[in-house]
Amino acid sequence: MVEVIESTAITSAMIFLVLLGAEFFNSFIALTQLPNQLGEIALENNLSPFLIVACILVLYLFLGCLMDSLAMILLTIPVFFPLIMTLEFGMTPEETAIWFGILTLIVVEVGLITPPVGLNVFIINKMAGDVSISETFKGVLPFLVSDIFRVILLFSFPGITLFLLKVF
């Protein structure tokens, strides 16, 4: 029982340390006005809102290879969400927030199985025992392809995302 309590305390401390670091980072971001500056740059250069979201999604795929999903979301949403809310997608602000939130969560999780360093693939490989890492990545590949196809559909047709939310 003592070992379980000790292990739980260590895990909880690590999670709270990530939350504390993210809170310090968020305060820094708020002081520097980075989200506002990014929004101004996007508006001044007449960048397509969908191009900006596509770049953010690619960044999430890359970060998913290197970071945990909780840390990724806590560190990036304070920067990207205000930027997304300043852009026009032909939806209400609430619909835009929901669409971006769904896309973000899906892409963050897809990033965790993306080669070459998908963190969840290493966990699966460790649980599989005597299976090589290359075989594990080959096994994950069909899921990765289907997830990327799903992200492309949801990105290309935001109305589908909102329709499915209303239906289900």
Condensed summary:
The protein is mostly helical and 168 residues long.
SSE layout and pairings?
Elements: H1 2-32, H2 34-44, H3 49-64, H4 69-86, H5 93-111, H6 119-128, H7 133-156, H8 158-167
Helix pairs in contact: 1-4, 2-4, 3-4, 3-5, 4-5, 5-7, 6-7, 7-8
Please mark out the parts with pLDDT under 50 across 5 or more consecutive residues, or reply none: none
Helix content: over 70%
* Sheet/helix structural class: mainly alpha
Number of domains: 2
Cα-based radius of gyration, to the nearest Å: 19 Å
Strand content: under 5%
Arithmetic mean of pLDDT: 86
- The shape is globular
Order of helices and strands: HHHHHHHH
Mind explaining what this structure looks like?
By secondary structure, the protein is mainly alpha-helical. The protein has two domains: 1-32; 34-167. 83% of the residues lie in helices and 0% in strands. It contains eight helices and no strands. It has helices at residues 2-32, 34-44, 49-64, 69-86, 93-111, 119-128, 133-156, 158-167. Helix 2 crosses helix 4, helix 3 (49-64) packs parallel to helix 5 and helix 6 (119-128) packs antiparallel against helix 7. It is globular, with a radius of gyration of 19 Å.
List keywords for this structure.
168 residues; mainly alpha; 2 domains; 8 helices; 83% helix
